[in-house]
Amino acid sequence: MIVYTATRVRTHTEAGTIDAACVVVDDEGLIAWVGPLADLPQAHRDAPRRHVDGTIMPGLIDTHVHLGFDGGPAPVDRMNAESDPEQLVLMLRNARELLSAGVTTARDLGARGYLDVVVRDAIVRGDARGPRMIVSGAPLTPTGGHCWFMGGEADGGYELRTAVRRHHEHDVDSIKIMSTGGFMTKGSAPWFAQYREDELRLAIDDAHRLGKKAVAHAHGIQGIRHAVRAGIDALEHCTFVASDGSLGFDAQVADEIAERGVYVSFTLNVLAWQMLRGDSGGFVDHLAMVVRELRQRGVPIVTGTDAGIDLAPHHAYSAGLEVLSAMGMPIEDVLLAATAVSSRSMGLDDITGVLQPGMAADLIGVAGDPAVDLACLGRPMLVVAFGVPFSPDPYPDLEALPSRTVAGPAALAHDH
Ligand SMILES: [Zn+2]
């Protein structure tokens, strides 16, 4: 039993934010009690205490990472050059890096050889430190399609369905499908749909039958439409690139996303954060328009960063939250997106994402008040995951990170 006290505790429940409050964590790693310190039940008064001069809030969630990419200048080259044991070392490093950034739950949306399953289980056992991982194995993609090198090639609906079952056999949690191409992979382009709607439906229906959420990588409007109509649970990127490669928008597709309750992650990260401060060739304005249009329709926005892709290291998580705020999303909504809403999107809302009794003790402590300045999230003082405290490792400030030389839609080139 340990009592974490703070200047304020953000519960992200109806209890709201409580001043001079505390969170009691039991020996099973669950939250036993949350409330004002003055009301702390007698039974917990003698337990050891740790004080955070600032804010305690639910641990952060990244719904889109790649543990197998190193966030350096050429992560795909490194993945392809590495043996499985070398990849595992990198993946464990990146899991620890995410935890240092205050990310206590993360979903890997593309890894090789079911190594993500191994990492997830090692963390649960306590053999390694990292976030609670939701893993999806290799993304499903046509032969030679976007990210084919991870090993998830499947052509047409029936092969897609078989691939879903194979992933289930290997104990993945969710299914990632490349609904459109990307700039990065030769012969694939982000505005082309890679599968028809009926093909996607075969895979998505089977994922649901097996109790898994299905997530689509989708840049182009056609690929977004196919995935939404086929019953996808969440869209990644969702940039609305038109078939001529220009930046477009489709109000009818946006309406359908809203009507079907599909969650959207714009995979905003430190690269977008850098573009905000420089010349993005209109790309940031375009993305801000899409964010605004979808929010107006009530589409639930979640936080994912595509961590690990070129020059987007895992420790830079907080940059993406600052971008959402700069794009007009109120800070309170950003903080909920990064915790309770992202948790719900993955079906984890009875486990993590809010601070209340019975939930996993996944929480962070930061100096200052994130409701006033999100930047304080960049340096958590305390991270608790699965109820076990962790001292964050030091990493460079966002300002010190190298930036890309490309801007505008070409910046999508490295999205996975
Ligand atoms: Zn990705």
- CATH architecture annotation of the largest domain: Alpha-Beta Barrel
Distance between the termini: 41 Å
Write down the secondary-structure element order.
Answer: EEEEEHHEHEHEHEHEHEHHEHHEEE
> How confident is the prediction overall: mean pLDDT?
95
Number of domains: 2
Estimate the strand proportion: 15-25%
Helical content band: 25-40%
Protein name: Amidohydrolase-related domain-containing protein
GO molecular function, one term: hydrolase activity, acting on carbon-nitrogen (but not peptide) bonds
Domain Amidohydrolase-related: 55-372
Describe the structure.
This protein is of the alpha/beta class. It folds into two domains: 2-59 and 353-391, Roll (Urease, subunit C, domain 1); 60-349, Metal-dependent hydrolases (TIM Barrel), CATH 3.20.20.140. Helices cover 30% and strands 21% of the residues. The chain is built from eleven helices and 15 strands. Strands 3-2-1-4-13-14-15 form a seven-stranded mixed sheet, with no helix packed on it. α8 crosses α10 (318-326). The protein starts with a strand and ends in a 26-residue tail after the last strand. Bound molecules: zinc ion (ZN). Zinc ion (ZN) is lined by residues 64, 66, 109-110, 306, 416. Residues 64, 66, 109-110, 306, 416 line the site of zinc ion.
Brief descriptors of the model:
416 residues, alpha/beta, Urease, subunit C, domain 1, TIM Barrel, 2 domains, seven-stranded mixed sheet, five-stranded parallel sheet, 11 helices, 15 strands, 21% strand, binds zinc ion
Topology (elements, then pairings):
Elements: E1 2-10, E2 17-25, E3 31-36, E4 49-58, E5 60-65, H1 75-81, H2 84-100, E6 103-108, H3 115-125, E7 132-135, H4 156-169, E8 175-178, H5 197-209, E9 214-220, H6 221-229, E10 234-241, H7 251-259, E11 263-265, H8 270-277, H9 283-296, E12 301-302, H10 318-326, H11 331-345, E13 363-367, E14 382-385, E15 388-390
Parallel strand pairs: 1-4, 5-6, 6-7, 8-9, 9-10, 10-11, 11-12
Antiparallel strand pairs: 1-2, 2-3, 4-13, 13-14, 14-15
Helix pairs in contact: 2-3, 4-5, 5-6, 8-10
The protein binds zinc ion (ZN).
